[in-house]
């Protein structure tokens, strides 16, 4: 896999994806196309059980590359194509079948914060901060995602003002798992990734699917959906191996069946 805006390293069933578009990992058309291609592939790869998403340099992602914007409004259909690409690159992360840990190494702004919110688990360095600053360049987008995680008041204040929320405040609000010195960020994320990657691949896939799908369902239907997954898993070799290993007090050996 060769990409111009991403670096990929796969080892021991963990894929580390590093955003690599210096100086601030701003997102352009090429970046988004590569995100879609890569995450669709990782979703199907049997040698990947967990993904860690981070950035090069001191910025996770500064969001959309504003240099692409001026020419869009003047060409019929251009903005529609652009918006579709933005949606689908975000969806490629959100719909990926593998758990994704966002290791946020610096500011995550606008569409950069969107990449974080499309991921499953968030950890951040102490110098990271988060914002939706579109209002500052005469645009408006992202409140759909903000209102999933923040109170109405905080989400709308962030949206109307472009205010920054520090990693420390995100940790206080319980929105990130850890707020760490920069040199501890990746070791912490990788330790968590190794724990996730040690689980049954079939169970992980259905767990990720359930975590995403049940957000869209009434509670009664969501729990029935989860119970259906449990029934399906109970018939697999991996589940029988997990239960036998538990009784025998040993590590399970999964075969993905």
From TrEMBL:
<comment type="similarity">
    <text>Belongs to the enoyl-CoA hydratase/isomerase family.</text>
</comment>
<dbReference type="InterPro" id="IPR018376">
    <property type="entry name" value="Enoyl-CoA_hyd/isom_CS"/>
</dbReference>
<protein>
    <submittedName>
        <fullName>Enoyl-CoA hydratase/isomerase family protein</fullName>
    </submittedName>
</protein>
<dbReference type="Pfam" id="PF00378">
    <property type="entry name" value="ECH_1"/>
</dbReference>
<keyword id="KW-0456">Lyase</keyword>
<dbReference type="InterPro" id="IPR014748">
    <property type="entry name" value="Enoyl-CoA_hydra_C"/>
</dbReference>
<dbReference type="InterPro" id="IPR001753">
    <property type="entry name" value="Enoyl-CoA_hydra/iso"/>
</dbReference>
<dbReference type="InterPro" id="IPR029045">
    <property type="entry name" value="ClpP/crotonase-like_dom_sf"/>
</dbReference>
């Amino acid at each position: 896999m060769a990409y111009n805006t991403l670096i990929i390293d796969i080892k021991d069933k963990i894929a580390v994806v590093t955003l690599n578009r210096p100086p601030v990992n701003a997102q352009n058309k090429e970046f988004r196309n590569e995100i879609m291609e890569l995450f669709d592939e990782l979703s199907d790869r049997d040698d990947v059980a967990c993904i860690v998403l981070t950035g090069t340099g001191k910025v996770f992602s500064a969001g959309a590359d504003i240099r692409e914007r001026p020419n869009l409004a003047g060409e019929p259909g251009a903005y529609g194509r652009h918006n579709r690409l933005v949606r689908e690159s975000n969806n490629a992360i959100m719909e990926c079948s593998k758990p994704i840990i966002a290791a946020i190494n610096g500011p995550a702004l606008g569409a950069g914060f969107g990449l974080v919110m499309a991921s499953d688990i968030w950890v951040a360095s102490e110098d990271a901060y988060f914002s939706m600053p579109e209002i500052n360049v005469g645009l408006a987008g992202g409140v759909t995602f903000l209102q999933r995680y923040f109170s109405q008041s905080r989400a709308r204040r962030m949206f109307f003002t472009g205010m920054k929320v520090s990693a420390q405040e995100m940790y206080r609000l319980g929105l990130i798992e850890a707020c760490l010195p920069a040199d501890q960020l990746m070791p912490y994320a990788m330790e968590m990734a190794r724990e996730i990657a040690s689980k049954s691949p079939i169970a992980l896939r259905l767990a990720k699917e359930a975590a995403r799908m049940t957000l869209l369902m009434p509670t009664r239907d969501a729990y029935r959906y989860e119970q259906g997954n449990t029934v399906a898993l109970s018939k697999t070799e991996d589940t029988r191996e997990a239960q036998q290993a538990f009784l025998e007090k040993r590590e399970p050996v999964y075969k993905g069946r």
